[in-house]
Structure formats: C-alpha cells, structure tokens
Amino acid sequence: MKGVEKIFLVGFSGSGKSSVGKGLAKAFRARFFDTDQMVVRKAGSSIAEIFARRGERVFRRLEREAITRVVSRKNTPAVIAVGGGAFQIRENRELIRSAGTVVYLSCSQVQIYRRLRHMNNRPLLHSSKSEGRVLGRVVRNRIKTLLNQRRHNYKLADITISTTDRTVRQTVRELVRKIGEINVFN
Fold first, then answer.
1. What is the pLDDT of residues 93-102, one digit of tens each?
2. I need a labelling partner for 6 at 20 to 30 A (CA). Which of 27, 28, 75, 166 fits?
3. List of residues 6+ apart from 2 with CB closer than 8 A
4. How far apart are CA 116 and CA 44, in angstroms?
C-alpha cells in the first residue's frame, strides 16, 4: 500500500461525492476535503462566478492547486471529493491515482438531472437562466454529452459504485465494505 491512504471520489456533478464523502470520512475517522469548496474559499467567490469572470482555465488551475494541497498532506487519512471535471485532466488523474484509491460514483443521467435541475451553480450545465421545457431538454442533453465524454476516464477508478436510487447511507455502507476488502487504511 501507499502508506496512509487517501480516497478520492470522482464522478459527475450530482453523483453524491460531497454527501457520500462526508459519510465515508466519518466511517473511517478520516478528514474530508471537497476540492470545489477549497477553490471557492481560496478565490473568495462561487464556482459560477469564477467561470463567468475569470474563465474555466483559471478555475481548473485553482482546482489543480487544491488537489495538490490535499495530496501533499502527509500522514493524513482523508476522503476527497473531486470536482466532476477534474479527473478528465491527465495531470490531475495521474496525481490522484498515484496518491490513493479512486472511487467512481456512477449515477444515471435521469437521476443526475433530477438532482441538479434546480441548481444554477453548475456553470458547465446552466448557460442560461431561462426556465421551461426547452432549458430542461438542453440540460439533459448537456449531461448526456458530458457523461459520455467523461465515462472512459471515470472507469479508470479502482472501485465503481452506483448511487442511482441509493441513499447516502446505503452507498457509504457498500463503500466501507468494498474499501475494507482492499485494506485501504491498513
């Protein structure tokens, strides 16, 4: 093993990385980090504002810095929720995979849409503030496109678990079992 382990949760927005991550950290008595929240704190503005005012490139740089900060914390067992697009960048993927166990939280397109449809803080999904069926269709199509683009990299994870139609508690229990089988924190 890699010494004191880190568990990285990857997957699409709305797959449950933050909620499951908090529960998993509690179960393992580990620290919990959310790279999106780390970026927000460092930038002093929301992710949507960073995208709108400074662009995706700046957001991705800040995201990379957050991942690097978490990885550099030696002797700190941790569960880290990584932003939905971070694992698509080769350098991030290599850093994450070398630093710990990667868990892909998969989720159906329908479930993701249900979880995210009323959230306006997802800049890669919501480019318009208009409401209605047309926007709903646009968001569903955007989710489908992004999932199809990202799925190949997500599947490079060490463990995959579906969060579709599962509660956070059910998902955490299953992950504790799976992670225990590979002795992550031993």
1. 999 999 999 9
2. 166
3. 99, 100
4. 23
Angle at 185 (CA atoms; ends 184, 186), nearest 5 degrees: 95
Instruction: Check if the beta carbon of residue 109 is closer than 8 Å to that of residue 147.
Output: yes
Instruction: Flag whether 53 is in a domain.
Output: yes
Q: How many separate domains does the chain show?
A: 1
pLDDT tens, position by position, 59-81: 999 999 999 999 999 888 999 99
pLDDT band for 120, please (50, 70, 90 cuts).
low
Q: Is residue 137 part of a domain?
A: yes
pLDDT digit string (tens) for 43-54? 999 988 998 899
Secondary structure element (H or E) that encloses residue 22, with its range: helix 17-28
CATH number for the domain including 101? 3.40.50.300
Q: How many CB atoms lie within 10 A of CB 141?
A: 11
Least confident of 127-131, 155-159, 181-185: 127-131
What range defines the domain where residue 106 resides?
6-181
Going by the DSSP 8-state scheme, the letter that residue 72 receives in this structure is T
> What is d(CA 149, CA 9) in angstroms, rounded to the nearest whole number?
18
Q: How far apart are CA 106 and CA 112, in angstroms?
A: 10
